[in-house]
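Structure, all two chains, one model.
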Amino acid sequence: DAKTTQPTSMDCAEGRAANLPCNHSTISGNEYVYWYRQIHSQGPQYIIHGLKNNETNEMASLIITEDRKSSTLILPHATLRDTAVYYCIAPNTDKLIFGTGTRLQVFP
Amino acid sequence: DTAVSQTPKYLVTQMGNDKSIKCEQNLGHDTMYWYKQDSKKFLKIMFSYNNKELIINETVPNRFSPKSPDKAHLNLHINSLELGDSAVYFCASSQYLTYEQYFGPGTRLTVT
């Protein structure tokens, strides 16, 4: 997998947008960027993925820079239930490799 | 309507015992996985099956034997359990050759 780098932790106020960055400067042209999250004591949950265009679904938006060296996952109105570890993954083999992710704490 | 289910949710057993964890998915996926998450929270893939055939086998002790009776089920049997096997084991499924995986709730295995 292309190496991804994420901040260890972030805070966000409830109701505000949570912007989670990810650097993937070694990503190749056909490698997608995937985002997962793991809420405490639960299984990881798929959020979104993209190649080069921005993507949006009911959970989040994914903004990928034009050079594809970084991306940002946006949770537009964070809630307490969004507190979780968020993983940015750029797989190029037959498996997902989870790193250490970003621990997002949403506070009231 | 649970998409990926695992049983049991908790499993406490003694060293040397043999135990099994079961996984079922009702998403119509043809690929299933077992992951292990240790106490440091690192999540690592162990096995993957596509249409009942083993396609990924990471460096896992051969005390671990996955079995897929059909593409909706993937079970994990562990022989001669050791203290280091204590972890949370997650099952997941996806369509073949996609990275959009759906995970079960996990089985917390404690070996004493």
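The mean pLDDT of chain A is 94.
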